Amino acid sequence: MEKYEEWEDRKVRHRREYHEEKRGRNATEDLSCNNCYRLHEWYRTEEIKEFWKWYRKLVPAETYNRNTLRGIDNLLIKNKEELSS
Ligand SMILES: [Zn+2]
């Protein structure tokens, strides 16, 4: 299965199992779910928005949330470490 289809499938299953059937821990996890991982408004800075414009061209993602940003943070930290070493 293609990566994008896998991601779509996971999203659909998560919504059904977690939000409709309320299976809790047994439900499929979806780290891109906006109901589970709501992004705080204060984190929507201009810098992040600019970065996201570029990032979404590379990754099939509809929107960003905390998990996406955690990934971006790790990426930025790693770049800084590489630059300073
Ligand atoms: Zn959810």
Largest β-sheet summary: none
Terminal CA distance: 40 Å
Sheet-strand content, in percent, reads under 5%
The mean pLDDT is 75
DSSP strand tally: 0
The number of helical segments is 3
- Overall, the morphology is elongated
As a percent range, the share of helical residues equals 55-70%
Structural class: mainly alpha
What's the Cα radius of gyration? 15 Å
Low-confidence stretches: none
Helix-strand string:
HHH
Bound molecules: zinc ion
The tally of structural domains comes to 2
What's the arrangement of secondary structure elements?
Elements: H1 3-20, H2 46-58, H3 66-84
Mind explaining what this structure looks like?
This protein has 85 residues and is mainly α. It folds into 2 domains: 1-30; 38-85, no CATH class. The protein is built from 3 helices and no strands. The protein has helices spanning 3-20, 46-58, 66-84. The protein is elongated and about 50 Å long. Bound molecules: zinc ion. Zinc ion is lined by residues 14, 18-19, 30, 33, 35-36.
